[in-house]
Amino acid sequence: MKDIIIQGKKVNYGLTPFIIAEGGVNHNSDLDLAIKLIDAAAEAGADAIKFQTWRAEQLATKAGKMADYQKRNIGKEESQFDMLKKLELKEKWYPQLIKRAKEKNIILLSTPHGGFEAIDFMERYNFPAFKIASGDITNLPFLEYAAKFKKPMLISTGMSNLEEVKEAIETVKNAGNDQILIFHCTTDYPLALENVNLRAIDTFKKELGVLIGYSDHTLGREVPIMAAALGACMIEKHFTLDRTMKGPDHVASMEPRDFKKMVEALKRVPIIMGSGAKKALKPELQYMNVARKSIVAARDIKKGEKFNKENLAIKRPGTGLSPKYFNQVLGKTAKTDIHKNALLPARESWRFIKRAKRV
């Protein structure tokens, strides 16, 4: 699969997963808190910190209602528009956020909400990729417009079916952009384990022909690690300084200390998964002769005596004739005396091995 490059970092299968700390709206429309999130994400080892870019007027009508999880997590109900207005990341803050991310050597990403204007705004600041939210998976004009900038398209798929995902991919490719990564995710915050459906990663890998990642909304770090083991090459996880803060996403997010532990575990996944080739590995070689077995004499065997199940045995060490030749040895004649528990002599062994190879 072709690499996706995000600000100099390669994303592909077999590499350490690219890890996004999803700051989302957990800045609570507070510049200082947004900067602290950047600092904490960098300290935790994330490759990128991601926020969301919108103006409420471009994103929702005043008639729109809050999602159930938003009402549940905030503890009250108001119009979606009013909630979004309170959580805007102010456009005038972006230069400071970009500067801080550069200082901390972490990539700054954002999800453009609110139509074409949000994409244009992000393009003015030269964001290295577009992260597309699940709610825009069927917003084909939006996908097409973003794709034309020829930057990586990181597309979440919550609430969608396979045909909708394929249609989104086709739209991006028809716009001349093949830098596509699809996130498997389920839209709920926090997400119950029975609704994770990680096997969808396998389905995506078989059906889509693009890189696959996983955007996580569960509590804890076990599911992202499992997703990486299934091959997800990009992991996104909601990130907060304090899960008890007020806001719709804090409660379903991970705090810095646990996020750092997750990052450390994710970096070990490709090491543990290995190459996939089944062969004796270097540390095993020292044990082969000790643990494997050879054909030996079960008692003293005289020259000219035929080998049988009574005068042969299979024992350690594994430095002699392999037990796989046992049935071929039976009925053959010993060419020399062999003492009890001795390995079959080299001359006997090579004779059977050569005959086996000819067969």
Automatic annotation (TrEMBL):
<dbReference type="Pfam" id="PF08666">
    <property type="entry name" value="SAF"/>
</dbReference>
<feature type="domain" description="AFP-like">
    <location>
        <begin position="294"/>
        <end position="341"/>
    </location>
</feature>
<dbReference type="InterPro" id="IPR036732">
    <property type="entry name" value="AFP_Neu5c_C_sf"/>
</dbReference>
<dbReference type="InterPro" id="IPR006190">
    <property type="entry name" value="SAF_AFP_Neu5Ac"/>
</dbReference>
<dbReference type="InterPro" id="IPR051690">
    <property type="entry name" value="PseI-like"/>
</dbReference>
<dbReference type="InterPro" id="IPR020007">
    <property type="entry name" value="NeuB/NeuA"/>
</dbReference>
<dbReference type="Pfam" id="PF03102">
    <property type="entry name" value="NeuB"/>
</dbReference>
<dbReference type="InterPro" id="IPR013132">
    <property type="entry name" value="PseI/NeuA/B-like_N"/>
</dbReference>
<dbReference type="InterPro" id="IPR013974">
    <property type="entry name" value="SAF"/>
</dbReference>
<protein>
    <submittedName>
        <fullName>N-acetylneuraminate synthase</fullName>
    </submittedName>
</protein>
<dbReference type="InterPro" id="IPR013785">
    <property type="entry name" value="Aldolase_TIM"/>
</dbReference>
<dbReference type="GO" id="GO:0047444">
    <property type="term" value="F:N-acylneuraminate-9-phosphate synthase activity"/>
</dbReference>
<dbReference type="InterPro" id="IPR057736">
    <property type="entry name" value="SAF_PseI/NeuA/NeuB"/>
</dbReference>
<dbReference type="GO" id="GO:0016051">
    <property type="term" value="P:carbohydrate biosynthetic process"/>
</dbReference>
